[in-house]
Amino acid sequence: MQSFLWFISTLFVFLSYVENTFGGITSTFIRSQWPSVDIPLDNEVFAVPKGHNAPQQVHITQGDYDGKAVIISWVTSDEPGSSEVQYGTTTGKYDHSAEGKSSSYSFYKYKSGYIHHCLLDGLEYDTKYYYKVGSGGSSREFWFQTPPTIDPDASYKFGIIGDLGQTYNSLSTVQHYMEELDPFKSYLHRYPTPYLASKSTSPLWYAIRRASAHIIVLSSYSSFVKYTLQWMWLREEFKRVDRKKTPWLIVLMHVPFYDSNDVHFMEGESMRAVFEKWFVRNRVDIVFAGHVHAYERSYRISNIQYNVSSGDRNPVPDRSAPLYITVGDGGNQEGLAGRFRDPQPDYSAFREASYGHSTLEIKNRTHAFYHWNRNDDGKKVETDSFILHNQYWVSSFRRRKLKKHRS
Amino acid sequence: MQSFLWFISTLFVFLSYVENTFGGITSTFIRSQWPSVDIPLDNEVFAVPKGHNAPQQVHITQGDYDGKAVIISWVTSDEPGSSEVQYGTTTGKYDHSAEGKSSSYSFYKYKSGYIHHCLLDGLEYDTKYYYKVGSGGSSREFWFQTPPTIDPDASYKFGIIGDLGQTYNSLSTVQHYMEELDPFKSYLHRYPTPYLASKSTSPLWYAIRRASAHIIVLSSYSSFVKYTLQWMWLREEFKRVDRKKTPWLIVLMHVPFYDSNDVHFMEGESMRAVFEKWFVRNRVDIVFAGHVHAYERSYRISNIQYNVSSGDRNPVPDRSAPLYITVGDGGNQEGLAGRFRDPQPDYSAFREASYGHSTLEIKNRTHAFYHWNRNDDGKKVETDSFILHNQYWVSSFRRRKLKKHRS
């Protein structure tokens, strides 16, 4: 089974599920409230390398809808240099090459390095590729593994880390750039997205398919109310979801719908009012959000009965609803959001103000394993885990069984 | 008392108020459901004039924060021609002139005329100005009256017509332009706003002061959640409101918060979740919206107790809350929105699916008269009217009286 670490700057994804057993857990684990230091990551990849104009901050993004392309991104600091990537299936032997582009931006006195993006497309599924960036003595080799063919029973492991070093101040800055109609600065300079492949008009919302999962990324800070471009795009994207090909339907966004931390409480209410009914109707399996610097998981609940006229109110248990998981705990200089609301609301299943990361191991079309691992001063401690049943296959199986039973 | 007709394309404003007497009225007036024909307007102003390159579609907008400037806009169709406006306080004698700018845009096969905007600033308050646009035999003279000095007891009459010939399809088009980062096409080409004067970063949200009123215009289709530019701007703009100078605080937006028509029901819920508490805290007098092609007025109610955790629910009577009036009844080729929800919700005071327009006559710092006039096949029929008490002056007077009574 392959794996893919997902940390698209501001948020990201995961999970699994047994039966609803109401009564939530507020973890008693207490961590000192220092802002995070860096999460230990592979130094070979993330350390600043030596040598003239050596490529640094090398990262990789799916480059198309279905996983047969990647975008390689890196930064050089001395001069623009080459944006070429050489690649092949044997280390040191590069029988393909692709030409990318570089750009830079400035913000007041800050001047970015030269940021390179290079698309490698027409790749084979399930294949290990070696690639080289940079030139001469400063060139560096890395590798990646392409995902398996889109297949309903493909097993696949995702890792999800949210809010990794982004602050909401920096988000305001992103927003500022966006509204100033200069959207390719900063954030978008550094994080390319394959938005055109999913017919999106903005790099801030898009979808990809990977193995047995269809993953939708939404933008909390762009307009999303009815008739806006994001709303129109999502309506169409849900029609493109084929649970027979990709049984797992996962949504990523920045601001959570269901979270009971005092910090940012109910900031997701605006988007919930618009999109929650689509999540329920389309049987989304799981919704991952960031923003709140703590971990929290909901039960399957929905609040789509709420109606300003009728008096119906508040989240109720709903088997068709997704699970909501806040994973804004990747580690961020703002520190943790330590104060949860008391009492713990009915919708909240588990919550803890620690740094950590999640994994979602899809086993087949019906089952996946979810784990949240607390990062306890460098030690990985499994803290919240369970089995997730697919919302489409398990529930339609249940429907068939029920129908048979009744007839 | 002066008057000012407000019809900024997609919506606009007004109202007055006696005591809450719950139990709403659904008017039994029935109008045939034909899409609207043009509301009769002054032909001298709105008819297409004769002559080579004659100025047409002449309209006027407040050009600054406090009412000492106007923007004159017009269209010429033969050639760009002059963007100059000559003006003065005597008809036919123009001792001032100002130079404007013209532009045009195209959309697929459509090509706009030459759209001119010219700012006339440094004007005197409460003064009638005559102005001339166009040149030679095709030039045309019009006049406008500047508002009185900003003064808490200035009387002033506003007219409000919403959704006058704009469709939500056209709004989608506007939105499309916005997100395509080409925001000066179409809508913004034609409707300039004095947004810089209120420190806004976008022409789609801004504020002006006029006589004894502070008027805030919000954008339903731009992002507005916490940390966005519109949110940050509104937070600051509320701080700039000085009810001792401008007792009347009026908000205009496109999508209503409280409306009980089946069409567009609860589409304003997203923005309500973000801004309603500010409206209550800042004692907004009245909120005008358009979008729904019918007339509706709420009681003073708020839903800020609603909390996804606590179970508190639904709008309750609230003396600190604004009145909400939907005036999306200006007349629009989409026709009327004739189906109201049954039963009429508690928050709805009066509703009727007719074309019409509203007037708000501010008398002094404490009282204003509100009228909604049905346009019954060209006849103006006063249908909903009442006295509005100022939310700042009357309520603080009440507080003082109460305090005195208690001590």
From TrEMBL, chains A, B:
<keyword id="KW-0408">Iron</keyword>
<keyword id="KW-0378">Hydrolase</keyword>
<feature type="domain" description="Fibronectin type-III">
    <location>
        <begin position="54"/>
        <end position="149"/>
    </location>
</feature>
<comment type="similarity">
    <text>Belongs to the metallophosphoesterase superfamily. Purple acid phosphatase family.</text>
</comment>
<dbReference type="InterPro" id="IPR029052">
    <property type="entry name" value="Metallo-depent_PP-like"/>
</dbReference>
<dbReference type="InterPro" id="IPR039331">
    <property type="entry name" value="PAPs-like"/>
</dbReference>
<keyword id="KW-0732">Signal</keyword>
<dbReference type="InterPro" id="IPR025733">
    <property type="entry name" value="PAPs_C"/>
</dbReference>
<protein>
    <recommendedName>
        <fullName>Purple acid phosphatase</fullName>
        <ecNumber>3.1.3.2</ecNumber>
    </recommendedName>
</protein>
<keyword id="KW-0325">Glycoprotein</keyword>
<dbReference type="GO" id="GO:0003993">
    <property type="term" value="F:acid phosphatase activity"/>
</dbReference>
<dbReference type="InterPro" id="IPR041792">
    <property type="entry name" value="MPP_PAP"/>
</dbReference>
<dbReference type="InterPro" id="IPR003961">
    <property type="entry name" value="FN3_dom"/>
</dbReference>
<dbReference type="GO" id="GO:0046872">
    <property type="term" value="F:metal ion binding"/>
</dbReference>
<dbReference type="Pfam" id="PF14008">
    <property type="entry name" value="Metallophos_C"/>
</dbReference>
<dbReference type="InterPro" id="IPR008963">
    <property type="entry name" value="Purple_acid_Pase-like_N"/>
</dbReference>
<dbReference type="Pfam" id="PF00149">
    <property type="entry name" value="Metallophos"/>
</dbReference>
<dbReference type="Pfam" id="PF16656">
    <property type="entry name" value="Pur_ac_phosph_N"/>
</dbReference>
<dbReference type="InterPro" id="IPR015914">
    <property type="entry name" value="PAPs_N"/>
</dbReference>
<keyword id="KW-0862">Zinc</keyword>
<keyword id="KW-0479">Metal-binding</keyword>
<feature type="signal peptide">
    <location>
        <begin position="1"/>
        <end position="23"/>
    </location>
</feature>
<dbReference type="InterPro" id="IPR004843">
    <property type="entry name" value="Calcineurin-like_PHP"/>
</dbReference>
